[in-house]
Amino acid sequence: MNKWYQLSASQVAKKLRVDINHGLSSKEIDDRKKYYGENALQMEQQSAKFILFLKQFQDFMVLILLAATLIAGMLGEYIDAIAIMLIVLLNGCIGFFQEFKAEKSLEKLKSLAAPVAHVLRDGIWVKIPSQDVVVGDIVKISRGDRIPADMRIIQSNTLETEESPLTGESLPVVKTTEKIVQAGLEAQDQSNMGFKGTMVTRGHGVGIVVHVGMHTEMGHIASLMVKTKRLITPLEQRLAELGKILILVALSLTILVVVIGINQGHPVYQMFLAGVSLAVAVIPEGLPAIVTVALSLGVQRMIRKKAIIRQLSAVETLGTASVICSDKTGTMTENKMTVKKLYINNQFLSVSGDGYDLTGHFYLHKKKLAHDVPNLKRMLHYGMVCNHASLNLKGHSTIIEGDPTDAALLVVARKLGLSESDRHQFKLIKEIPFDSERKRMSVVVEDDNGMRFLIVKGAPDVLLPRFTYYLTESGRQVLTSVEKQKIEHAVNDMADQALRTLAIGFKPLQKNDHLNNFQLEKDLTFIGLYGMIDPPRKEVKEAILACKQAGIKTVMITGDHVKTARAIAKQLHLLPEDGLVLEGYELNRLSFAELKEIIDDVYVFARVTPEHKLKIVKAFQEKGHVVAMTGDGVNDAPAIKASNIGISMGISGTDVTKEASSLILMDDNFATIKKAIEEGRNIYDNIRKFVRYLLSSNVGEILVMLFALMMAMPLPLIPVQILWVNLVTDGLPALALGLDQPEDNVMERSPRNPRESIFARGLGYKILSRGFLIGIVTLLAFIIVFQQNNAFLEHARTVAFATLVMAQLIHVFDCRSDSSVFSRNPFENRYLIIAVLSSIFLLLLVIYWAPLQPIFQTTYLFFHDWLLIIGLSMIPTIIFGFSKK
């Protein structure tokens, strides 16, 4: 392995054949991928398809069916044996297909949720999935990013990384750019290297990728990447517990039926198969598969709505959310900051143009100004220099990389005619980066004449105490208290107009000035104020109203000025007349108990720190709320992790927030949260629907057999018929219910209690009552036909079989709503219509196709039979279809 840390930046670039200022060309990428390999750790080897198929037959009840098949064959009942075998095989094929599709969906989700890397390709900085990084790529990293591959650092601005995944050392490591002469150093001592999987905790820098995938230090430590394990949701745990209970019931019923049947003189073999069939009827074999499919399809629908679910547990939790704590910038707003006003020379200038449009003009009292306004060029020039954003033109589009506030400063400078060459007139000597505690950024630069000075930009309330002078048209003046008040008034005026304010200033330096001195950012000279706005997204107001109707409170949390936050909140109708607005300093004064007392009345938190966000989340949770928390920065991760539903931004979010979250917004849009909650509620509703359908159908099958045995009558259904009903009549419509559209009132109901039983809100009663009637009408159909002619038992069984199937297929439409069967359009769910029609076709096939009649012991039915079947089948829905109970 090359000792990259022992080479200079230029030597590394030469060895890897890359231009540091231009990056790789797009033509080279495929060749480098083939030569150096993919930038991915090896996945855990998945089971072979054949093994996956065999796993479908390890279920306890399937093994019982296979045993029954063996016994049937040994007793010479070959038709029964073949029929059962075919049904088991068909059920296994369906399970295999569902599990195979689920694995593919999981792989797709992983690729969609993969972190991105900023690379220089063809001279332009672009975002690509980290797995597409190749050896030789020039990569830009900054605070909160996870390093995508092993790289040699070639630029470092107070860059520090946290390498505990690699070395176990929790303290950040300071990164340098100079080559290290000493040989044989371990990874933790290679201070000019960045390693795959480690986190940038401070500053920013640039590196050249030297190793990817399994050739990285992380690849050497782990030869296999641990496969992400799917989390079991509380719902699935409850269903698993239900399954255990049903198995006990099934075994008890099997023994009961066998004993009763033998005592009544039925053959032992027949009663054994009947008992097994009843046991199968008790257990909805398709339930776990349908739950998985419903969750998987719901996740796919969320992807189409720009929401990626990283943890399936979040799907269920989404339906219980009662509070959304949302960031303002980029989530509720466009995240395209635009400078609309400037305060300079004690007067306001207006700026035209919206978004990242580079055309615009400057106005004073509606009068268009020339570009030679005193101090204007200096102010906008300094704003470009003290800046991390980059601006590239691609056709007619402006591509921005970096913070939206920095981007706004670049755009307004371009409107004055300044260019990238103006930006690079100064040599960067030192940078003191922005962070949430300092609320400012400073750079020390040197001009062509060797003159040094400090440029600083940041929050006006933080910088104003540090200003000693201010710049006027006639030069630098001492900043008096009167002038300070004028600046404060200007800040307030802009904030009242929902403008975010940013102050900018400078300080002349001597070459021998100590740059680490704490006095460096004092005695500054004020130049002016930027007033910029990030307009609200048009769709957010409607989304907030929909959440309110759903019993979900929306709370804005922002680091912006309180007046800006209040103005935006009012525009979005988020803040009611009696709603409270709290600032960070007020949160500091409040104890946790005091915050809990008033938290339900607060709708806006302004000027907050990450620590405040964590306190807010915990206060809501203590009040019994299920909290969804959004964030994009690395410091949002604690609050996101502490929340019930952590939501990160797919575009602006850092890798660490994405990893801490359970939901990623691909478009950084608040309206997408509302869509995700609606989808989460609908998924849970659909699970209740098919649980209701499957269990009520199974109750009907059990009762018709049990009541017939207790009345000493012949069995109305044979085992093969019961198995067929379970597979076809139950399976297809139940799966279609999992695809049902949301009801109209899904976002008008209060959030569901997360501890609520699956059988809550009358579902248990619905299952038992509907199942009882389905069993009764099926038995009634059998008795009516059997008593007419005892010689034709096969005819009576065929009528009972058809009645059971039709009663269940009519009942499935009743399961679509908790209210009347007629409250929803029956043709709304086309999948359900197709499933029902398919089940009817298969029923007719079993009854009228001669080759299947001996297998299922069916016979032809006549018109008067169908009148009886349809009439009896409709009774359960007619009796209960108009009732909510």
UniProtKB/TrEMBL annotation:
The chain crosses the membrane at residues 57-75, 81-100, 245-262, 268-297, 767-786, 831-850, 862-882. SMART domains: Cation_ATPase_N. It is found in: Cell membrane. GO terms for cellular component: plasma membrane. GO terms for molecular function: ATP binding; ATP hydrolysis activity; P-type calcium transporter activity. This is P-type Ca(2+) transporter. Pfam families: Cation_ATPase, Cation_ATPase_C, Cation_ATPase_N, E1-E2_ATPase. Its main location: membrane. It catalyses: Ca(2+)(in) + ATP + H2O = Ca(2+)(out) + ADP + phosphate + H(+). InterPro entries: ATPase_P-typ_cation-transptr_C (IPR006068), ATPase_P-typ_cation-transptr_N (IPR004014), ATPase_P-typ_cyto_dom_N (IPR023299), ATPase_P-typ_P_site (IPR018303), ATPase_P-typ_TM_dom_sf (IPR023298), ATPase_P-typ_transduc_dom_A_sf (IPR008250), ATPase_P-type_domA (IPR059000), Cation_transp_ATPase_P-type (IPR050510). It is a multi-pass membrane protein. Its EC number is 7.2.2.10. Keywords: ATP-binding, Calcium, Calcium transport, Cell membrane, Ion transport, Magnesium, Membrane, Nucleotide-binding, Phosphoprotein, Translocase, Transmembrane, Transmembrane helix, Transport. Residues 3-77 form the Cation-transporting P-type ATPase N-terminal domain. Belongs to the cation transport ATPase (P-type) (TC 3.A.3) family. Type IIA subfamily.
